[in-house]
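To the wet lab folks,

You asked to see what we're planning to order before we commit. Fair enough. Below is the target structure as tokens, and below that is the sequence we designed to fit it. If anything looks off to you, flag it before the synthesis order goes out.
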């Protein structure tokens, strides 16, 4: 790789730049630098308003190999200009068949890495991962840990761990940092949720009184982060503290997390506050049970054959089982660097109420 002439602008390729994280990152990258930003997606995600003039949208698919299905001369022109890559594309559904999850998360990442190797002016690349590559591990999970020794709770975790192995291999040739995010729950300022995930589906089940129990422990910590922190922290690390070969945890950690019991209490309180009629339904706080008991409940839902309940329970199950493997994510490397810049994840209980309020008042994004 050769450095670009100082007179030339940076061109940053952001794969998945319309997603929950990607959209926030793109606006920061486009705003904060004199760079051109190229966003690569399949173009199926919800359109985002107001694309700044230095952002170009490209339609492609990382599952199509290193040209992403672009015309070969367009791909060559792109390779010629790219100085930075921020790889956000992922299949973030927790319960896909493993082969499908791998097609985007592993093979798709291999395609982006093969593309990167052909970029003569590439200076740095970030690959986004999840702290849940830890899988079924319990206790402390650190930035240098690889995870997966005890297996995984779902195909998403497994495919992201496999993705990391591929990325670490490519680090021998390319300047790459891995940014592992904790679960994004919403915007800490507004409560807005731009991408519903299993947590929000679980909240809806609780609201509907369809989740009599959750697995886990009353005192187990649940690590959640707001999207504004995820974008601000990763943008800062990428732009100002880029460290090739590093793996950084962008998470709430012990200080910013709440216990499962406290989160359930906060959920019930917010339901009552923002939908007073909900109180009349006398829905009890779900019991926190052993994983075996929860799995028995899931089996009984399957046998009962109520399709609505079954689909909802399955969507939540792939995440809920993770609660039975309590862990704390150690973020001392990234945490120290970010603290110097005054960036830290807020404690989830400082903004959680706003997220639940958004879910209730916007009916989980279906109300205008
Ligand atoms: N959100 C979280 O809670 C969370 C937590 C931990 C880690 N992460 C990681 O952070 C990164 C960003 O996550 P996110 O939540 O922003 O994801 P997301 O909201 O699901 O967005 C995925 C993005 O990738 C694009 N995409 C998906 N498949 C594609 C393909 N085959 N080819 C090209 N583009 C494709 C999507 O647009 P189209 O559908 O239009 O293609 C969209 O822009 C991922 O690596 C994820 O694993 C996220």
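Sequence we intend to order:
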């Amino acid at each position: 790789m050769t450095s670009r002439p100082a007179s030339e602008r940076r061109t940053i390729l952001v794969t998945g730049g319309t997603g929950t994280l990607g959209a926030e990152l793109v606006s920061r990258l486009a705003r904060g630098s004199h760079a051109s930003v190229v966003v690569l997606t399949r173009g199926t995600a919800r359109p985002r308003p107001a694309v700044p003039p230095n952002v170009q949208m490209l339609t492609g698919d990382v599952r199509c190999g290193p040209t992403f299905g672009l015309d070969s001369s367009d791909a060559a022109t792109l390779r010629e200009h790219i100085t930075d890559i921020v790889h956000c594309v992922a299949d973030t559904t927790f319960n896909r068949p493993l082969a499908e999850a791998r097609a985007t998360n592993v093979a798709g990442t291999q395609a982006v890495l093969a593309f990167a190797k052909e970029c003569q002016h590439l200076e740095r690349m970030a690959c986004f991962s999840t702290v849940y590559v830890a899988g079924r591990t319990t206790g402390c999970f650190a930035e240098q840990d690889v995870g997966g020794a005890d297996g995984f709770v779902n195909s998403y975790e497994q495919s992201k761990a496999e993705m990391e192995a591929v990325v670490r291999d490519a680090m021998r040739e390319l300047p790459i940092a891995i940014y592992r995010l904790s679960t994004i729950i919403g915007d800490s300022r507004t409560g807005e949720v731009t991408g519903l995930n299993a947590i929000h589906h679980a909240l809806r089940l609780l609201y509907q009184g369809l989740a009599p129990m959750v697995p886990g422990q009353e005192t187990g910590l649940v690590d959640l982060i707001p999207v504004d922190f995820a974008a601000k922290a990763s943008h800062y690390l990428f732009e100002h503290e880029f460290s090739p070969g590093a793996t950084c945890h962008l998470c709430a950690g012990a200080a910013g997390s709440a216990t499962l019991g406290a989160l359930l209490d906060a959920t019930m309180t917010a339901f009552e506050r923002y939908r007073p009629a909900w109180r009349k339904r006398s829905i009890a706080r779900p019991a926190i049970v052993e994983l075996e008991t929860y799995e028995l409940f899931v089996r009984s839902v399957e046998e009962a054959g109520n399709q609505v309940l079954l689909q909802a329970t399955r969507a939540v199950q792939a995440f809920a089982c993770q609660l039975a493997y309590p862990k704390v994510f150690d973020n001392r490397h990234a945490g120290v660097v970010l603290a110097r810049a005054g960036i830290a994840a807020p404690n989830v209980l400082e903004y959680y109420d706003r997220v639940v309020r958004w879910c209730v008042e916007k009916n989980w994004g279906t109300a205008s």
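Structural context that might help your review: The two ends are 49 Å apart (CA to CA). The mean pLDDT is 93.

Thanks,
Computational group
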